């Protein structure tokens, strides 16, 4: 009985959205246009192809084959016009402690489409090929990268080898993509949620950044902007992290690494054993890379390097 009730609820929801298609298209299209103008200062010149809701429902077999759970929803694989695609749907789950307001989800979806399209020329960004404005929250349509999330490779229980050479390539590529966000637009765009769960590796092991739902643009002439805190444990600004620390907190990873980085006999305590087992790894290079990472998490913002400096230093590694 519960199953029938849920199915009826979903059916009514889709019927209601079908009735609202013209209004949804206009409302979402207007919001997307405003966002594109905001981030590009009116210089946007890349058209975004629009797909209908029916096309995406059919292409994904009613959104079966989900391959990833994203911040506001999920990504599923499908086939559209003979082409393999990925569709990112935004949803809100009533009663879920992690749910967001309709306004936040809509804003995140529109922002994601706008900035992803602006970044479409970057080979290290998951390429958008279109969107659908006929759902309650706009959906993204990506090219199919046949991917795996980077975080899966970094899991201690993962038996797949991600070599030091590959990790260095990933770091260089993502640093370049973030630098592009900071420098290629009228005002810098800050990503804010950079972590291994928002980076995929395609079947050629090329890293691609995705999920621009939480980016924010700095006001003209400003170096900072206030906004709501994004709760991602382990990826806080060090100054904020230190402001909320207490005696009961476990040892912070930065302190742990600092305690071991300059001790030759304990170097293995802070490096993935899979890397240490590689015969060709240069330990001096590894230590130099860790030192750069530690500069990025200095307690005070003025002591941390900017993205341009970091990208230049990482690109120097061979």
TrEMBL record:
Top-level division of the source organism's lineage: Eukaryota
Entry protein name: Non-functional pseudokinase ZED1-like isoform X2
Organism from which the protein derives: Nicotiana tabacum (Common tobacco)
GN (gene name): LOC107819530
């Amino acid at each position: 009985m519960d199953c029938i009730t849920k199915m009826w609820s979903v059916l009514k929801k889709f019927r209601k959205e079908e009735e609202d298609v013209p209004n949804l298209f206009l409302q979402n299209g207007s919001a997307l246009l405003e966002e594109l103008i905001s981030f590009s200062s009116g210089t946007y010149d890349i058209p975004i192809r629009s797909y209908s809701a029916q096309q995406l429902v059919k292409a994904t077999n009613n959104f079966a084959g989900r391959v990833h759970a994203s911040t506001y929803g999920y990504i599923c694989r499908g086939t559209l016009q003979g082409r393999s695609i990925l569709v990112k749907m935004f949803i809100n789950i009533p009663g879920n402690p992690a749910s967001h307001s309709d306004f936040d989800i809509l804003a995140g979806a529109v922002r994601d489409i706008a900035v992803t399209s602006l970044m479409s020329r970057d080979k290290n960004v998951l390429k958008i090929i279109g969107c659908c404005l006929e759902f309650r929250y706009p959906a993204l349509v990506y090219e199919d990268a046949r991917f795996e999330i980077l975080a899966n490779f970094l899991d201690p229980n993962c038996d797949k080898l991600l070599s030091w050479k590959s990790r260095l390539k990933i770091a260089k590529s993502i640093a370049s993509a973030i630098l592009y966000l900071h420098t290629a637009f009228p005002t810098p765009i800050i990503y804010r949620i950079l972590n291994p769960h928002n980076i995929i590796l395609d079947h050629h092991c090329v890293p691609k950044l995705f999920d621009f739902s939480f980016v924010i643009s700095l006001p003209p002439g400003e170096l900072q902007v206030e906004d709501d805190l994004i709760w991602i444990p382990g990826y806080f600004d060090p100054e904020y992290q230190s402001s909320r620390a207490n005696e009961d907190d476990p040892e912070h990873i930065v302190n742990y690494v600092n305690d071991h980085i300059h001790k030759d006999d304990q170097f293995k305590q802070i490096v993935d054993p899979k890397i240490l087992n590689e015969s060709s790894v240069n330990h001096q290079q590894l230590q130099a890379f860790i030192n750069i990472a530690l500069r990025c998490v200095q307690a005070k913002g003025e002591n941390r390097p900017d993205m341009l400096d970091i990208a230049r230093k990482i690109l120097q590694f061979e």
